[in-house]
Amino acid sequence: MADLSVVRSRFPALARTQGGVPVVYADGPGGTQVPQEVIDAMGGFLARGGSNLGGPFVTSEETAQVVELARTAMADLFNATQPEEVSFGQNMTSLTLSLGRALAKTWRPGDQIVCTRLDHDANVSSWMVAATEAGAEVRLVDFDTSDGRLDPGAVAAAITDRTRLVAVTHASNALGTVVDVAAVASAAHEAGALVFVDAVHFTPHGSIDVRSLGCDFLAASAYKFFGPHTGILYGRLELMAGLDAVKIRPAPGDPPGKWETGTQSFESLAGVAAAVDYLASLGAGERRRERLVAAMAAIGVHETGLIAHFLDGIARLPNVTLYGVPTVAGRTPTFAVAVAGSTAAQVAAHLGRRGIFVWDGHYYALEVMRSLGVLESGGLVRIGFVHYNTDDEVERTLEALAELG
Q1: In terms of domains, do 164 and 54 share one?
Q2: pLDDT at 1 over 70
Q3: Sheet harboring 231-235: ordered strands across?
Q4: What angle do CA 153, 154, 160 make, to 5 degrees?
Q5: One domain for residues 331 and 352
Q6: Is the pTM above the cut of 0.90?
Q7: What angle do CA 90, 234, 255 make, to 5 degrees?
């Protein structure tokens, strides 16, 4: 990765101060800041004058090019076989709900959908809604509450000949746990089930390869990887073509158009492409996919250092309890903690007054918090770093936590 000071200079929001001191954006799991390239791309589309798709004039043709560039960029980010396997929507949740309703039409009473308690609720409730429509059953697989890990074997054990779909997260937005998705997908496919992956939290931290993962569907959100608020859904083309999408009559009958209800936010799609190109700019290689893989590897090296720094620091804070993976390996730089004598809301407010932005509560990971026994008491504090964060910011966060001892 390029020099960190140079990387940070590309993000205007990182220049913000509070009380004369630079703020610390430790709220990356809830949404990242964006580089100037994304701002310019979105503003540039609006400034040039945009039109809807299908018109016999230049601004409409330019809009079609914006959509195609975004689709091609995301295909590179996911290593999809072709751009038509990428669909866009308002957000990941709406796309997942739409896909769930389409899949539910192929299910029968008594069929089974397997989810895990480690997942964000968009990857749990969405399938509960779909299962209810089909009269199917949702089976939830527990994770190890002692260390936050999910055993692929436990997921495999929950799969039966009635299982039609296995939904799993690539990484937990609450605990930072990275899941062995390929192992889960292998077990699911062996039983004839399809696989849906929630990659929202993992995308800014590691390279995604839908072919190596062996998944059938995968969803992400651009605002979690330095882009605008747009949802992205990957689906194997033959599956997306065969499913009955919920759409209005004039909408296209083939993917990806059949999944993209209404008019898309074209300025956001310009930002999506710019966000992918930003990431690619951090790596070397002839093709964009090569640059993306190299960039995510470099990001991983930097974030590993942040993880080690934070874990080492809280080990010296007896007032702080970590929930989740206690080691550098097997996690992202997202940490769920509790501070003795303070509620999660009080801790977040304390850090906020010091210009350190973190989240408290359940962050829509209801099953995680329920399993940990903290849902009713206000959840936990989530501290999350990304590649633009520094060791100094980690240290400031640790010092602020120590003040509550």
Answers
A1: yes
A2: no
A3: 86-89, 231-235, 217-221, 194-198, 163-169, 112-116, 137-141
A4: 95
A5: yes
A6: yes
A7: 80
